[in-house]
Amino acid sequence: MKSSVIGAAVAAALAMPVAGFAVTSYQVTGQVLEVSDSAIVVEKGKEKFDIARTADTKVDGGELKVGEKVTVFYTMSAKKVEVKADKKVGLAEKAVDKTGAVAGKAGKVVEKTADTAAKTVDGAVQETGKVAKKAGGAVKGTAGEILGKKP
């Protein structure tokens, strides 16, 4: 048997209009199964409606008792709302975090590679200069010998 439970806030919502918002009203017609100062249980077909009531709940047309056919007018009111994080958004945020971490590591690798290349080029240039100086001296000496001059 399916059961719909309407909290105590429903009765309060009936008594207090909400400014600026259109509150949807509902109604259920059925046989009264239970009556108390705080609730009315109405059965419509196989479905039970447990509806909160307060001292402000108005009863028209007779005595409210078990077995009577009634129509109950009510509204729904939220007592608490829990927002669940969207799994897709959470996954996307994790992916962005991981991508940023990978990009950071890649940047460091590129930086190290550039430093190594610069050092290698600097070393090669220095070695080339030394070789050129030695070669220049040898060429002078060789040229001097060819020309008959001493270095």
Indicate the CATH architecture of the largest domain: Beta Barrel
Helical/strand content category? alpha+beta
Secondary-structure element order, N to C: EHEEEEH
The quaternary structure here is single chain
Q: Could you list the spans in which at least 5 consecutive residues all have pLDDT below 50?
A: 1-15
**N-to-C terminal Cα separation, in Å?**
116 Å
Question: What is the number of E strands?
Answer: 5
Q: How many domains would you count in the coordinates?
A: 2
Q: What summary fits the major beta sheet? A: 5 strands, mixed
* Rg, nearest Å: 45 Å
Helix content: 40-55%
Q: If helices are DSSP runs of H or I spanning 4 or more residues, what is the number of helices?
A: 2
Taken as a percent bin, the fraction of beta residues is 15-25%
With strands numbered from the N-terminus, the spatial order across the biggest sheet is 1-4-3-2-5
